Amino acid sequence: MAEREPVEKQITVFVGCVVKNGYVLLVQRAEEECPEAHMKWELPGGKVDFNETPQESVEREFFEETGVRIKARSLLPRVQVSYWQYPWGRQQTLVFCFTCDFVNSSPFLGDHHVEKIAWTPVNEVNRLQTIPGTKEFIELSLQHLSL
User: Fold this and answer.
1) How many other CB atoms are there within 10 angstroms of residue 99's CB atom?
2) Number of domains the chain contains
3) pLDDT, tens only, 22-72
4) Which residue has the higher pLDDT, 145 or 138?
5) 1: confidence class by pLDDT, cuts 50, 70, 90
6) Domain with 57 in it: what CATH number?
7) Buried (b) or exposed (e) across 42-63, using 16+ Cβ within 10 A?
8) Residue 89, Cβ neighbours under 10 Å: how many?
9) Is residue 1 included in any domain, yes or no?
10) Are 30 and 115 contacting, i.e. CB atoms less than 8 angstroms apart?
11) Is residue 80 a part of any domain in this protein?
């Protein structure tokens, strides 16, 4: 049996940054197949489905990962490009971030890529191990909110 060639693929992801009373909502990623990202903190979000706008995508993914409903507001002027190694090959991930408003929350039903959800004090984010770009997106979001 011939060995398979490693695959290379690219995906686009939209995440949301919600800051409420000095806290930002983060999720801890559970993805053992990608050791560089596994158990690190990140902003909730995910891939855009076909026929879905970026705003619809981040609102849907945010709810699926946290049980929190948001309203996407402004797209931040930054793109995070990361390369992740998986058993099947390499993935280039383009990440964009929206500042978002908290709408309401429901009981969280669970997501296979989420280990924990936490409202984290903004001034404690720098102490966490995060996915590349997370801290920068939060900082940009805070700047945007203070305008």
Assistant:
1) 21
2) 1
3) 999 999 999 999 999 999 999 999 999 999 999 999 999 999 999 999 999
4) 138
5) low
6) 3.90.79.10
7) bbbbbebeeeeebbebbbbbbb
8) 13
9) no
10) yes
11) yes
For the stretch 104-125, pLDDT in tens is 988 777 778 899 999 999 999 9
User: What is the pLDDT of the chain when averaged over all its residues?
Assistant: 93
**CA distances in angstroms from 129 to 3, 68, 105, listed in the order given:** 35, 23, 26
Please give the DSSP secondary-structure letter assigned to residue 16: E
Of 2-6, 17-21, 106-110, the range with the lowest mean pLDDT is 2-6
What gap in Å lies between CA 83 and CA 101, rounded to an integer? 29
Range of the domain at 98: 7-145
Residue labelled with tokens 């929190």: 68
**Burial of 65: CB neighbours in 10 Å, binned 0-12, 13-18, 19+:** buried
Is 16 contained in some domain?
A: yes
Q: What is the DSSP string of 21-85?
A: TTEEEEEEE--TTSTTTTT-EE-SEEEPPTT--HHHHHHHHHHHHHSEEEEEEEE-S--EEEEEE
